[in-house]
Amino acid sequence: MRKVLVVHYDEIALKGKNRGYFEDRLLHGIQNLFRDVGGIAVRKLYGRFLVSLEKVSLPEADVVLRLTRLPGLRYLLEGRETDGAWESLLAAVDEVLPPEGAARTFGVRAKRADKNYPKRSAEIEREMGGHVLAQRAWTVDLGDPDVWIRIELVNGRGLVCTHRHEGPGGLPTGVSGRGLALLSGGIDSPVAAFMMMTRGLTVSCIHFHSAPYTNERSQDKVRDLARLLVRFQPTLDLTMVPFAEPIQQSIVRDAPQALRVILYRRFMVRLANRAAVEARAACIISGESLGQVASQTIENLTSVQAVSGLPILRPLIGRSKSEIIGVARRIETYETSILPHDDCCSYLMPRSPATRSTPAELEVAERVLDVDALVDAAWEKRDRETLRL
Ligand code: ATP
Ligand code: MG
To answer: Where are the domains positioned within the chain?
Structure first.
């Protein structure tokens, strides 16, 4: 009998001919997570992976924590691997069964991928339930018990598990290519980046800062957020671009005040298109949600998309603020996002931003700006760092 973790994945089962490739990416993702501790033994069984805990130098709780942040992993079970013989299953249940006082209700659930196993699932559940009732004064609850005992018969092995941990789900890192996320210090953009990580993108980030009008702290905050995001992929590149001089200053001096925010956004996207080439990213990701602020109307989103050769993906476009906050709490970026910071000083912000711009109107406003030279100047002063777990 061996201590194991059983990794169940999300949508890979739906992938038809590509299933093998998706499984390999997830397997590679698991191995990558433990490279720093000399690797981990993983085996592929039918529809799941088995992670062996025998020779791992990390505490089990740390292994679990790392795995539950892996895109593509839907849930993880802690348990024992046996040869599948009925006696072995009984012995494994005895070993993983929590003490009397730890629960009042339980349920047994059996999954039989090996269809020639001598007992049917319902029989296994009933008989194993009887075995537990003989040892504990608990009652059976098949709705929401305090303890689930999960038995899986697969590839000639018998797995007996109790604790279940949820993962982010979605698709394994990298199966969809690369994306570049616009990362601000707010609540929304880290959530947007995370959501696209769970759609198979390897994400790099870019941040535009307004130093010297804003302080160092606001850049540190973005770095902190990027460090929280790197828990979901092996490494993360963060590009910092100075935005106040000369871009914002020129816009403040020479362009209509109401269009400022949209003009800023268009310059950010132009620079993001450059950074995307460097990062080999095929799309840009932003945290916009329709109607949330003046710059996020359909008209303004259209005016911004107009200067981008790459598609701008907006995973939060149809989400309410409370839903976004819910995800931010779950991925633990919320507490950092709400720390006070100067996003941008009032000198750079308009009194009443336009809600309905058109690309034509913005082109007129940009005629007095030397767009290419401004973009070049900011791009020259960028800084790039690679964050690791
Ligand atoms: P967030 O909470 O992500 O800051 P927000 O509701 O404050 O979003 P805006 O400030 O309008 O909305 O920004 C919309 C999106 O534009 C952000 O989600 C982010 O993707 C991008 N963005 C805004 N400011 C910056 C910045 N300084 N650097 C990089 N990206 C930015
Ligand atoms: Mg913001």
So the answer is: 2-166, 177-388
The whole-number pLDDT of residue 39 equals: 87
| Ligand 1: centre distance to CA 207 (Å) | 9
The CATH number for 177-388, chosen from 3.90.1150.10, 3.40.50.620, 3.40.50.300, 3.40.50.150, is 3.40.50.620
The answer, yes or no, to whether any atom of ligand 1 lies below 6 A from the CB of 193, is no
CA nearest to 71, candidates 14, 33, 16, 38: 33
To the nearest 10°, the Cα dihedral for 202, 203, 204, 205? 180
pTM above 0.90, yes or no: yes
**151 SS3 class:** strand
For 217-271, the pLDDT digits (tens) are 999 999 999 999 999 999 999 999 999 999 999 999 999 999 999 999 999 999 9
Q: Atom 12 of ligand 1 has which residue's CA nearest to it?
A: 288
